[in-house]
């Protein structure tokens, strides 16, 4: 099989017989990869019999425990902070921790196809070397000593492939023959954030599944197939950091990294009852992470953590900023962790400051697609809590979110999807139907790029002015401190039905910081539309018709906590405080 | 005369006779504007006889004093800090201060054509109202109480035109018929930074000349003609903030704002023996400032101060950041003035910290065009001073600056100059020969925009890695704290000979912070090439041949102090310390 990357522009005309052979070739290549991956799971970690089909056993989040020892369960259901506390004091061996997560991740993959890369042996070697370090020095190697960390398969790890769900990328570096990649020559092939994490003592061990090209709210590709939602395998896991979401829901990882250009961290976080942070651009290092829109700078991908608690997100971000990533990534701002902002937000939230309480905006609808009943209820519960705690909540009436969506579409794919479709054509695989931009368009010209950039700035300005104007309404003397908004208009839907990502896209358009916290689960008994629902538009009508209370019963619902640009400390402090007040994030809920 | 802006794409075909009428029209319009401007100078401030021609009196920097009272001289040759100290304590009336600067600016304009807009009456009204405020409250209105401030004519002031040296922009808002401009609807027609400055108590009174479209190192346009260098009117004033530079050299302003995309603050600062700051993008608010490359986001224009001392730059930046411009400009980073960085840099410079001294890189040449002898001597004097004070200076051997220049050209004008040439065609005026991009090209496509953005990031990464790698060389345990570099390869040349802006462009490509300080003046007796100079390339040969020690004798030479991205505090602290150690910035030197 010829796996040399092809330049699609110089490719010879394909005769029908060649074409069919190539079709054969990409399918074979995908199959081979899928099988190679499975073979990396040690025999003793293989399921004795396949799990029953989703129709019989939709939820596998409890099922997975059957295959684990009590010690493994105890380790894997600990928070990242708890794990590091124990590995850093010799109470737990890093090797035991890493093995437990490798085992659980292997099981998870057999249940929901959530991994793209497995490198258990390298991880266990790293763990042993950390144990040896601790044995010799009686101190941890770094603040993340021995913490296993899962990575979305857009993030490079030296010696491990990155397919990003694209068949033609297998055995290449982002579609190029292996060799010195300009950005990798100095420091090897790992993305900067992986180098930083490893320097802090963290241990990467798996890379998780993504939609083809990492550009969809549903995680399906031709290599790994489909990643379903482990809490209900009849529903989607979300995307594009879908494998991360599913793996976290199964406690196959204590902490993962996703990337987000339109909701790709936040949607799978919400769909899997976990926590996530989409930082503003320039806060965490994206250096050396793959993207099919690399060089699109107006609304770029950002990298951020996903975890079982807000505290673990804070733990990760704090550690990453302490290594001064602006010294390695020219796009990272020299903006250290601002503990005073974080702590003061928490104190004000708890009423420990003489000043007034906090003020929030709540977005009950973006005016394009109304939230389905479980999401409306989730928002209501958060608002009720905030008001009960003495905070002000005002209704959010911002500039048009339809305009935000338009700007998102206009600014994200200025090459008309050329880079993505060129990547697909390396192997001749077709675009999957659920991927954004599955039909290639002509690139726009430089004048149009500039006009769109100006329109984007004008929208950001209008939104900022609106945000600031709320100072007249809050009664705190300040504009709202944060915004509570849906993550998605509904709980995770059935496959093929992630139709709208507007609630998350809008905050990429604005480059605002946003955390996601779990809030509730859909309940078929209470979460019903009032009679005579009047749809806003055909898209909203579809969202209304998609809602199936029976199918979605029990499906997770989260909310976004949105701060202005670069307000990561604020949205993390609030994620911690609000989720703690709601008592979320405890694995015993499973 | 029809002054309705035309959409050049929908314009009717022009017959020869129409064309000649239009040619007539733009010339007449430019003349009318020039004359209207002159008529705004009160008769008592008009020169009784024109100044002698440059051949007889090249230097007018002392000449201007002849027309001023001792009190006016005393006011206008005070620093911004001194002025505000006096206006804020009632020692000086704001009106007297404003009148003195209006008078001196009016004289300056008659000597070097440095103004595009005059609004003395409005300024004097504002001054009176501030005096009234002080009279009533016995305290200043704000930290810039009564400080006159000049503005480059790319910055909007409500009620005043912005032509930016483009005839077709006269009587329009950036080429559009007057009316609600999307970015201006909320807060009037002033650029945000003007609103901020006025809120702080500053008084705009003039807008200064720029090259046609503000895209050249030489200040020439069809409206105002040519702005020569006041220290030698046979030489250029620099550009594009050329009017600012010239006005400052004549002490017709205590503090001005320029904009910079390739050296437009720094080159005129150096050519006029004054100080300037080009901040990184996102530090000071560019919201609502005009640009013919608006929407080009990879290497955008930035706004920054120009002044008679580094202390005045600090004064201005500190005041501007105190109003939290990120609340009004969505592109400004929430990064307050970091006084600890500023003060600690100064203490280390002075040897007041137990830690090691500072480390500097010195760029003796960028490898594309070698500095002419006066610039090499200026660099040597700074290096000698730094070493004498105990600091380390290493030779700077960065990634190719030729590559930086290529990236600058590739990223700055992705529309091929369409926006600029459309602006020119509003009136049918031709492009001036010294403007960058005077021939329109086809816009590049979105794929190419993305490829260029990636190449830019890779260059920034390589440069950052190089910067960090100097930690091995400095002996301080840190990478270099700042870089000392030429501003321009020579002193201000004769008209038409600003051939190369590579020394400044490179730091726009990198988005680094850079301050400019005056260092010396060219001396025909000592600043000569050694015999047998071997040129690097044809451009360097031209620079060598351009050098005319006799013509340039006495022309100002400055250097850049360059810090990494967003290191404004560092480069300002060093500008203050180094210039103070060199005893620069005293008007008695004139």
How would you sum up this structure, described in words?
2 copies of one chain form a homodimer. Chain A has helices spanning 16-39, 70-76, 80-87, 94-112, 120-137, 192-199, 242-249, 266-271, 310-322, 339-349, 373-388, 401-412, 418-425, 446-469, 471-474, 502-509, 538-546, 549-552, 568-582; strands spanning 115-118, 148-152, 203-208, 220-221, 225-226, 228-229, 232-236, 255-260, 275-278, 302-307, 359-362, 392-395, 482-486, 513-521, 556-563. Chain A is α/β, with parallel strands linked by helices and 590 residues long. Chain A has a single domain (35-46, 66-589), classed as Alpha-Beta Complex (Amidase signature (AS) enzymes), CATH 3.90.1300. In chain A, the strands form 3 sheets. Chain A has an 11-stranded mixed β-sheet with strand order 1-3-2-8-10-9-14-15-13-11-12, sandwiched between helices. In chain A, strands 4-5 form a two-stranded antiparallel ribbon. Chain A has a two-stranded antiparallel sheet with strand order 6-7. In chain A, a hairpin with a 2-residue loop joins strand 6 (228-229) and strand 7. The two termini of chain A are 46 Å apart. In chain A, 60% of the residues are buried. Chains A and B meet through helix 14 of A and helix 14 of B.
């Amino acid at each position: 099989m010829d796996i040399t990357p092809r330049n699609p522009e110089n490719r010879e005309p394909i005769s029908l017989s060649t074409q069919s052979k190539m079709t054969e070739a990409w399918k074979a290549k995908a199959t081979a990869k899928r099988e190679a991956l499975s073979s990396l799971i040690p025999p003793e970690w293989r399921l004795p019999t396949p799990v029953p089909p989703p129709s019989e056993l939709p939820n596998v989040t409890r099922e997975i425990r059957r295959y684990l020892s009590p010690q493994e369960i105890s380790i894997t259901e600990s928070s990242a902070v708890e794990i590091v506390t124990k590995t850093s004091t010799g109470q737990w061996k890093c090797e035991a921790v890493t093995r437990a997560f490798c085992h659980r991740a292997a099981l998870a993959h057999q249940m929901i196809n959530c991994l793209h890369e497995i490198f258990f042996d390298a991880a266990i070697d790293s763990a042993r070397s950390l144990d040896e370090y601790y044995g010799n020095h009686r101190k941890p190697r770094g603040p993340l000593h021995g913490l296993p960390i899962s990575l979305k398969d857009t993030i490079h790890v030296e010696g491990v492939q990155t397919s990003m769900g694209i068949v033609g990328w297998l055995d290449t570096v982002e579609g190029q023959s292996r060799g010195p990649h300009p950005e990798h020559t100095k420091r090897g092939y790992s993305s900067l954030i992986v180098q930083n994490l490893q320097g802090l003592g963290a241990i990467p061990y798996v890379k998780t599944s993504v939609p083809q090209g990492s550009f969809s709210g549903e995680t399906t590709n031709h290599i790994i197939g489909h990643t379903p939602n482990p809490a209900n395998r009849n529903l989607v896991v979300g995307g594009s950091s879908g494998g991360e979401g599913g793996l976290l829901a199964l406690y196959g990882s204590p902490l993962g990294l996703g990337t987000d250009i339109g909701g790709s961290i936040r949607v799978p976080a919400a769909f899997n009852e976990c926590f996530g942070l989409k930082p503003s651009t320039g806060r965490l290092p994206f250096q050396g992470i793959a993207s099919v829109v690399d060089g699109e700078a107006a609304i770029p991908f950002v990298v951020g953590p996903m975890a079982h608690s807000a505290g673990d997100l804070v733990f990760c971000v704090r550690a990453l900023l302490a290594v001064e990533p602006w010294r390695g990534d020219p796009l990272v701002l020299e903006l250290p962790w601002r503990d005073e902002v974080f702590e003061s937000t928490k104190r004000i939230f708890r009423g420990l400051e003489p000043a007034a309480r906090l003020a929030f905006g709540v977005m009950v609808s973006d005016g394009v697609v109304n939230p389905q009943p479980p999401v409306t209820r989730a928002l209501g519960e958060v608002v009720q809590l905030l008001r009960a705690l003495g905070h002000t909540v005002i209704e959010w009436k911002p500039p048009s979110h339809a305009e935000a969506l338009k700007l998102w579409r206009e600014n994200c794919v200025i090459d008309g999807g050329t880079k993505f479709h060129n990547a697909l054509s390396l192997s001749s695989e077709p675009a999957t139907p659920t991927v954004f931009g599955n039909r290639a368009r002509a690139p726009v010209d430089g004048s149009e790029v500039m006009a769109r950039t100006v329109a984007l700035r004008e929208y950001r300005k209008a939104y900022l002015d609106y945000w600031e104007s709320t100072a007249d309404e809050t009664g705190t003397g300040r504009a709202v401190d944060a915004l509570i908004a849906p993550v998605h208009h509904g709980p995770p839907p059935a496959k093929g039905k992630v139709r709208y990502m507007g609630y998350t896209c809008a905050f990429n358009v604005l480059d605002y910081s946003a955390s996601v916290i779990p809030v509730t689960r859909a309940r078929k008994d209470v979460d019903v539309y009032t009679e005579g629902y009047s749809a806003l538009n055909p898209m909203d009508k579809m969202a209304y018709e998609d809602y199936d209370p029976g199918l979605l019963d029990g499906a997770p619902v989260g909310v976004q906590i949105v701060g202005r640009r670069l307000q990561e400390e604020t949205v993390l402090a609030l994620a911690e405080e609000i989720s703690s007040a709601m008592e979320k994030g405890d694995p015993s809920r499973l």
